[in-house]
Design brief:
Structural class: alpha+beta
Shape: elongated
Distance between the termini: 35 Å
Number of strands: 6
Strand order of the largest sheet: 3-2-1-4-5-6
Order of helices and strands: HHHEHEEEEE
Length: 187
């Protein structure tokens, strides 16, 4: 489990638990992996990892797919600069990955999106399957800084470029829903 976001954490963030997430321990932040003390914020925040700040554990490099952000409602990561802040870890996920897919886009309807026969355009999603599904976020790059525009996307196989025969609607708007997959269906 990743570090909770600000709105979910309630009683504060624990440095020991952030350390568990950073070493990639089973269960991550919520796990019970035995850490070796001390745990240094300097080492947790070091983008290249290690334990030069005196930590009892050596940490892997920070997962740069988590964006540097001031938005407490999305994944974040430390920026590697002073002042070091625990708040830079809200939503951090050491094992975050993104998957790419090809698509054809229409801002107005799934019918128009499904009318295309092939696409070479690539976007990325944070789901676990080949294609994004309801609740996944869709991004314009693997780094995940910019969410996809609202509209309808016919999905194509990332390798062959052949149609999956399905479409998803990516939502717009504020409140953290922009770029989120909503309804989906068959072409």
């Amino acid at each position: 489990m990743a570090v909770p976001t600000y709105d979910l954490i309630g009683n504060g963030m624990e440095m020991l638990r952030v350390g568990r997430e950073r070493v990639g321990a089973p269960g991550g932040y919520a796990g019970s992996y035995a850490m070796t003390n001390p745990v240094s914020l300097k080492d947790l925040s070091n983008l290249s990892g290690g334990n030069a700040g005196g930590s009892g554990n050596s940490y892997p490099a920070v997962n740069l797919l988590n964006p540097v952000s001031t938005n407490f409602y999305q994944n974040r990561r430390p920026n590697g600069s002073n002042p070091l802040k625990m708040s830079e870890f809200f939503g951090y996920d050491q094992t975050l990955s993104r998957y790419y897919f090809r698509f054809a886009y229409s801002s107005s309807s799934s019918t128009l999106a499904c009318g295309f026969t092939m696409s070479a355009t690539i976007y990325y999603h944070n789901g676990t399957g080949t294609y994004p599904t309801s609740g996944d976020k869709v991004y314009t790059s693997a780094a995940g800084f910019t969410v996809a525009a609202a509209g309808f996307y016919q999905m194509f196989d990332p390798s062959s470029g052949g149609s999956s025969g399905n479409w998803v609607e990516v939502l717009g708007g504020g409140g953290g829903t922009a770029g989120t997959v909503g309804p989906y269906g068959s072409c």
